[in-house]
Each structure stands twice: as C-alpha cells, then as structure tokens.
Specification:
The complex is a heterodimer of chains A (266) and B (302). The model of chain A has no long low-confidence stretch (mean pLDDT 80). In chain A, 79% of the residues lie in helices and 0% in strands. With 266 residues, chain A is an all-alpha fold. The longest helix of chain A is centred in the middle third of the chain and has 34 residues, at 124-157. Chain A has helices spanning 2-15, 19-42, 51-55, 60-65, 73-89, 92-110, 114-118, 124-157, 161-167, 170-197, 201-208, 212-223, 231-255, 258-264. Chain B is elongated, with a radius of gyration of 24 Å. Chain B is built from 11 helices and 14 strands. Helix content of chain B is 38%, strand content 28%. Chain B has helices spanning 40-47, 69-75, 91-101, 107-117, 133-145, 163-178, 190-196, 213-221, 234-241, 263-276, 291-301, and strands at residues 2-11, 14-24, 29-33, 55-60, 63-64, 76-79, 151-155, 182-187, 199-204, 206-211, 223-229, 248-252, 255-260, 281-287. Chain B has 2 domains: 2-211, 3-Layer(aba) Sandwich (Rossmann fold), CATH 3.40.50.300; 222-288, Alpha-Beta Plaits (2-Layer Sandwich). Classes of the chains: A mainly alpha (266), B alpha/beta (302). Chains A and B meet through α1, α7 and α14 of A and α2 and α3 of B.
C-alpha cells in the first residue's frame, strides 16, 4: 500500500509540472460546465408563453421518460438540451486520465526511468494500481468538482425548483458518480495497453485518445435523435462499462509485462 | 553471491545470452567485458529479475531467480545503462521515491548520507534535469545504494563521462569494494576493469573466459620479461636461448624480450647468463600487455 502511495505522489509531482496536463485538468471541466450552464442561463425565461409550440417539437420518448409532470414544454426543452450535454460532460473523465497516463506511463520510457523503477521490489500490480489511481483520481475529482459547479450554478439560475430536480435527476447522478469513474478506469486501462504495445511514445498518446471516440459518438448519436439517454439506458451503460472495465484491466495487467516493456519500448 | 547455471536468454530466434555458467564470490568485483550487443545488459537484467531467462537457473544473494524475484530486487542495487532520473523532480525527491520503494527505514537519513557522499547535497533541491551527465550518473549510483545492497550491478558506470567524473565514479566504486560489497560491472572501459576488478569475464553471447586480469594476460600472451642492455645482439640472445626454460627470445633495439612461464624463478638465471656473456645490464622489467590487447585477442578468436 505504501508503495502505491509513493507511486501516486511521484506521478502527481511529475505530471502536474506539465502545462498540457494542467490545462486539460483545469480547462476541460470548466468548459464542459460552462456550456450547459450557459444553455440554462440563455433559456431561463423560456418557460412563459411558448411552451405549447416547443412541446410539440420534442421527441415523444423524451417527453415520456425525461419530463416530469408539472413542467411546461419550454422547461422540458431545457431538460432535453441539458441532457444532450451529459455525454459531452463524460469527456472529462476520459480525456483527463488519458492525458495523465500518456505522460506518466509513456513519459517513463522517454526519460528511461521505467527500468530503475521496475528494478525496485515493487510488484507489477502495485505499479499498475499506483499509475491507474494517479490518473483516475484527478479525473474523478475534476468531474465531481465540475458537476458540483454545474449543480450550484443551476440552483442559482433556475427559478422553478421542479425543473432543477429534473435537471439533476438520477440519470445525472448515475452518469457522474458511477459511469464517470468507470470511464476513467477504462481510459487508463486502455492507455496502459497501448503504451505497453507500441514502440513510439507519441503513437501511444495519439492512439489512446481514440477512447474518446465512443463518447463523442454517443453525444452525436443522442443529438441526432438515435437514442435518448434515460435512466434505463444509462444504467445499462453503467453495467456494460463495469464489465468492459474488468476486461480491460485484466488485459492491461496481462499486456503490461516488465519484459515486454523493457525490451519492446525503444 | 551470484551463481548461474546454463542461463540462457533468447528473443525470438535471436540468442542474447547462451548457457552462462558463472560464480561471483562475496566481496568480489567482477567485470563483464564484451562488445555492444554481446548480451551484457541482458545478463544484468536477468540477474536483477527484470526479465526472465529462457532456460537455465540462477541464484542471487541466495534467492532463486524466477521464484523469489521480489526478494532479489529488494536486496540488490542496480545502476542501469542510462540514469533514468525524473528530470522534473528534485534530486532529493528522486532519491526519496526510491528509498520508499526499497522500504528503507530511515529515508531522510539514507538520502542525506548518499547525496553527501557523492557531493550532491548542496544541489539537492535542484531538478535532476538541470544536472550534468556526470552528476546524473552519481545520483543514479546514490539511488542504487540507498537500501545498502550487498550486491551491486553497475551497467557501464562511466560511459559518456568526462575523465574527471569517471575518476570520481571509479574512486567511489573502489570505496564500495573496500566495504566488502559484491559488485558486478559491465563495461567497455578495459582500463577501468583492469583497475577495479578482481576477475573479469569476456562475454560474447556466451562467456568466453573468466579469470583474473593477470592470469588472462598470461594465458593469452604468456609472460614476457624485458632485459634492457647497453647493447643487445644475437650473441647475447643465443646465450639466453640455450637455457631450457626459455620459450622465446627476441632482440629489439637494445632490449632482449624473453618469453617465460615463471619469471620470478628464472630471471636470476638469465641475469647471471647475460652478465657471464659480458652484457651490461641496465634494468629488468615485465612487459605488461593491456587488458585491451587481451580482450581484442579473445573476441577476435571467438
């Protein structure tokens, strides 16, 4: 356990000296928070007058599954618009760990510091857990912090507290508190696998970023009306993510072999 | 302290180390000499349980390779081919990380001890990235010693260092030798090996020969004694050739080069013969071949 803590402290001390990492960790959550808050702010007065017209334009699945009774059409539209951004919000727990992992794992090889590290009595599992947590913890904390700011901002902007309940319903809570950390773990496990397999650190970083594609696909799919992220869908996503994480972590530990890393990484 | 038996490592179809059988004794400084790609680094990586052997067995500090790898890593110190420092972190923090990973009890004390010993204490707060190559190498040596290992593996400890830094590192290794640590050095620097090592092994995928530098010289070139005379000629050479124990005599300018098995025993007889033949003997010395000559001869023959 002490060795894991040492690795985490070391990783943070190193990666947070990198401006790109700091930029990603600080800027991305702020951007993803500002966008939905801006939407809520811009449409805060839309609940009067035009409700019926907007209601008729909303997808029927959306009005059934997302819009609680008591909200008018315009307020439902606000809920719909914000829920569109939920997927975009999920980029935070994916992009941050990929950036950190790219610097912490691939960076080890570029500075050739991995060999002395592997020569210590640390076990592969301890090293992997340390590196995973060093990337996952900031991502999860940044996601939670961004969500906290979003919730606070919503509370300040939205006058109708029923609308606030709809904006911050179970879908958001499952997405932020369950799917978010699972996505972060998936991103790190994927980065680990890529880092262990490719010989060029730059390739590792670029290929690892591919993990964002499914999240973006989800965002655009939802925008295009291909599916609606209701409570059931997000719960299924969480279960699938859990299984996927278990598989990726297993594969990452299989792939992250001392020998292959020392002899393949040139 | 280190025992290997037919230790073999293959990377696919490429044979990196072939049937290495070796014993390195406690307190011994063993030099592993060989050309680039000979398998020296692979051998160090195997013996420090960084990579596993394809075949064969080994024990390091009494621990069995492949079964007690964590124990091996806990009890040996390694200076890897490149220092591999965390350049953004201070020298002190670099050391602290490794002290913690090696489960050192008094982290601060040990870090201070070795930073002071290697003359880096005043620069402890500076980023390792700002250090010169020599300073980084010293820092890496300090890092390898934090947990007071009884066995130390040094892979090219003076590679790329200027003469002053190399000298400092060699002096430090000599100090470690005095402390009775077992040291396994891989080096291209044959002069360094000659000065530091009790025994050397010439390695080219497989171990060609293992012996003390002096014995290697004798086995490859024999022992030659130089007799400096006021004037040397074939007449004097002929008188020496008549002695039964003499293998070969050559006249080179005003010197006689005499090839012998045991100069300590036979030199007085030669001196008597030369004086009896009217030679004016100025002085006598042994012709010392460099380890480099020995090494080149062995590698060429392989």
């Amino acid at each position: 356990m002490n060795k894991i803590k040492t690795i985490i402290r070391k990783e943070w001390a190193e990666v947070f000296k990198n401006r790109m990492v700091i930029f990603t960790v600080a800027f991305l959550p702020l951007l993803m928070t500002a966008l939905p808050l801006g939407i809520i702010f811009a449409t805060r007065d839309a609940s009067t007058g035009t409700g019926e017209a907007i209601d008729s334009q909303l997808p029927s699945e959306m009005t059934q599954s997302m819009c609680p009774q008591g909200l008018n059409g315009a307020e439902c539209f606000q809920v719909f618009m914000i829920s569109e951004f939920m997927m975009l919000f999920m980029i935070v727990p994916v992009a941050i760990p990929v950036t950190i992992a790219a610097y912490s794992i691939v960076g080890e090889k570029t500075t050739r510091s991995l060999e002395p590290l592997l020569a210590t009595p640390i076990t592969t599992i301890e090293l992997l857990i340390g590196k995973c947590l060093a990337a996952v913890i900031p991502a999860v904390l940044a996601t939670y912090a961004a969500f906290g700011i979003f919730a606070l901002g919503s509370w300040l902007i939205v006058a109708n507290k029923m609308l606030l309940t709809a904006l911050l319903d179970a879908r958001w809570l499952i997405a932020i508190f369950i799917v978010g950390p699972l996505l972060a773990v998936m991103a790190v496990a994927f980065s680990l696998m890529i880092s262990s397999r490719v010989s060029d650190p730059r390739v590792a970083e670029q290929v690892s970023m591919v993990i964002i594609v499914p999240v973006l696909a989800g965002f655009f799919g939802q925008m295009a009306g291909l599916f609606v992220l209701n409570k059931q869908v997000i719960s299924v996503v969480a279960v699938v993510m859990l299984a996927l994480d278990a598989l990726l972590v297993y594969l990452a530990t299989r792939v992250f072999q001392r020998e292959s890393i020392l002899t393949r990484w040139k | 302290m280190i025992h290997t038996e037919n230790l073999t490592k293959k990377f696919g179809t490429i044979m990196a180390v072939e049937c290495l059988s070796l014993d390195v004794r406690e307190g011994e400084v063993f030099g592993c000499l060989g050309p680039n790609g000979a398998g020296k680094t692979t051998t160090v990586r195997m013996l420090t349980s960084l990579i596993g052997p394809t075949d064969g067995s080994a024990t390091v500090n009494g621990f069995v390779l492949g079964k007690q790898d964590t124990d091996i890593r806990r009890t040996v110190g390694v200076l890897t081919e490149t220092p591999g420092m965390y350049d953004n972190l201070s020298a002190e923090y670099n050391m602290q990380i490794f002290a913690e990973l090696y489960e050192v009890q008094d982290v601060k004390g040990q870090v201070e001890k070795y930073l002071r010993m290697l003359g880096l204490w005043e620069r402890r707060f500076d980023s390792a990235g700002t250090f010169s190559k020599g300073m980084k190498q010293k820092l890496a040596i300090a890092r390898a010693l934090l947990h007071e290992p009884r066995i130390l593996f040094l892979d090219e400890p003076t590679a790329g260092l200027d003469p002053e830094a190399s000298h400092l590192v060699r002096e430090f290794i000599a100090e470690l030798k005095k402390e009775g640590r077992t040291i396994f050095i891989c080096t291209h620097n044959l002069d360094e090996a000659d000065r530091l090592c009790d025994r050397v092994g010439v390695f080219k995928t497989r171990m060609l020969v293992v012996d003390t530098p002096a014995n290697l010289r004798a086995s490859v070139f024999g022992r030659k004694v130089v007799f400096h005379l006021r004037a040397a000629d074939e007449g004097l050479a002929g008188a020496v050739r008549k002695l039964l124990f003499v293998r070969e005599v050559k006249v080179v300018e005003n010197k006689l080069l005499v090839n012998l098995d045991d100069p300590e025993v036979h030199n007085p007889d030669i001196i008597r013969t030369l004086i009896g033949a009217g030679a004016d003997l100025q002085f006598v010395g042994e012709l010392r071949h460099s380890l480099e000559e020995v090494y080149l001869q062995l590698v060429k023959a392989a």
